[in-house]
Amino acid sequence: MNLQMLGRVLAFYGRFLFSFTEPGFRFRRFFWRTATRDFRGQVWLVSGASGGLGAYIAGEAVKAGATVIAAARDAGKLAALRESLAPELRPRLEPWVCDFALQSKVTTLLQQLHSGGRRIDVLVNNVGVLCDAHELTAEGRERSFAINLLSHFQLTEGLLANGLLGEGAAVINMSSGGGYNFPLLPELLNVTEASRYNGTAAYACHKRAQMVLNAHWRGVYGNQNIAFYVMHPGWVDTEGVQRSLPRFRRALKSILRDAASGADTALWLAAERPTQADVAGVWFDRALRPAHVFAYTREGDRAVQSLIDRLRGELNDGQSKTPAAPTSQ
Ligand SMILES: NC(=O)c1ccc[n+]([C@@H]2O[C@H](COP(=O)([O-])OP(=O)(O)OC[C@H]3O[C@@H](n4cnc5c(N)ncnc54)[C@H](OP(=O)(O)O)[C@@H]3O)[C@@H](O)[C@H]2O)c1
Q1: Domain segments of the chain: what residues?
Q2: Cβ(288)–Cβ(281) under 8 Å?
Q3: Which terminal Cβ of the chain has fewer Cβ within 10 Å, N or C?
Q4: Structure pTM?
């Protein structure tokens, strides 16, 4: 890491240290009114629901009355999540095994939802990984790109195309404060050569791209009464952080957020459905924050359209290798 990069990293962490950790959450919570959550009758789909924030969100949504399709790759962890709920709640947590690294598996999930006539009221695009080591999936894509960005795009667009996200639905995209540190650079998306790969930069770029995608969806579907939100949870002590950022975790362990604090905004957005004047904003601790805190992350209109084209292109390229996506009636 050169000096300029080091300076940038220190400035980034220093700037957000209080805000993104548990003290920042506790301070803001002091000013909030207690809100009740009532999700009775709703069907939720949460990706990456077997652990961390996804598991917490899924469990809380079930407790507040929702039926939750909890999608993740590990059947054992999903079964354990279900068992952790009170017996009378378990039937409303539906474990769905899906590896979001593989677009063919997301296609299968979409087909199953479609053929089962499922309508989703709240979609939480939560699954996300920071992979230090470069890895290609069996479908030939860089693994974190496929999980963090392409699967979210595919799932959301697939549900929309088939009318499975109806009037009044909400889509909550789990981004990261890491997105504040990187612009949308096309060369950081789906880096298939190991020599060009930097896991932290790729992750940050995926998270920036999620913010851009959310603004795009708000613009396109805003008049269809579907709410699109992008949020970040702050810094939360999850297995993902323990695995991917061990030094960061060791240094900040005593002040990292717990899952309840990190997931609070997702559950609040689903319950309150706040209006949003600025299409590009990012929700954090129940308030809309700017999409950019550093000028160097701003992208032009062209970059937005080329991101959409790129993601569509990725899915079309893969169609010969994957089962046909369901289509609207
Ligand atoms: N924790 C934080 O401080 C923080 C900060 C900013 C943003 N976020 C974002 O919040 C989201 C959740 O993060 P987290 O910290 O809760 O992560 P986590 O502890 O790693 O949990 C992620 C969940 O996703 C599952 N998963 C991973 N790869 C998958 C795949 N290919 N297919 C299906 N499921 C998969 C994991 O299952 P396995 O156990 O089987 O891998 C796990 O259940 C991510 O998008 C992350 O970027 C987190």
Answers
A1: 35-318
A2: yes
A3: C
A4: 0.95
3-class DSSP state for residue 301? helix
CA distance 94 to 275: 30
Q: Which of 122, 119, 106, 202 lies closest to 155 in space, CA to CA?
A: 106
Instruction: From the CA of 102, give the closest atom in ligand 1.
Output: 31
> In which order are the strands placed within the sheet that holds 287-289?
93-97, 67-72, 43-47, 120-125, 165-174, 227-231, 282-284, 287-289
Which residues, judged by CB distance below 6 Å to any ligand atom, belong to the binding site of ligand 1? 48, 50-54, 72-74, 77, 99-101, 126-129, 147, 174, 176, 232-233, 235-236, 238-241
CA of residue 49 to ligand 1 center, whole Å = 8
Question: In sequence order, what are the residues at sequence separation of 6 or more whose Cβ sits closer than 8 angstroms to the Cβ of residue 266?
Answer: 53, 57, 124, 126, 172, 174, 231, 233
Cα maximum dimension of the chain: 57
Beta bridge partners of 257: 236
The helix-helix angle for 151-161 and 301-318 (nearest 10°) equals 80
Q: List C-alpha distances in Å: 52 to 37, 72, 83, 172, 295.
A: 20, 12, 16, 16, 32
Ligand 1 centroid distance, CA of 63 (Å): 21
Q: Is residue 44 within 8 Å of 120, Cβ to Cβ?
A: yes
Q: Which CATH superfamily is domain 35-318 in?
A: NAD(P)-binding Rossmann-like Domain (3.40.50.720)
Over the stretch 149-178, which tens digit does the pLDDT of each residue have?
A: 999 999 999 999 999 998 899 999 999 998
Half-sphere exposure of 252 (CA within 13 A, CB side): 25
* Positive/negative CA dihedral, 312, 313, 316, 317: negative
Centre of ligand 1 to C-alpha 110, Å, is 21
Closest CA to 266 of 91, 26, 3, 44: 44
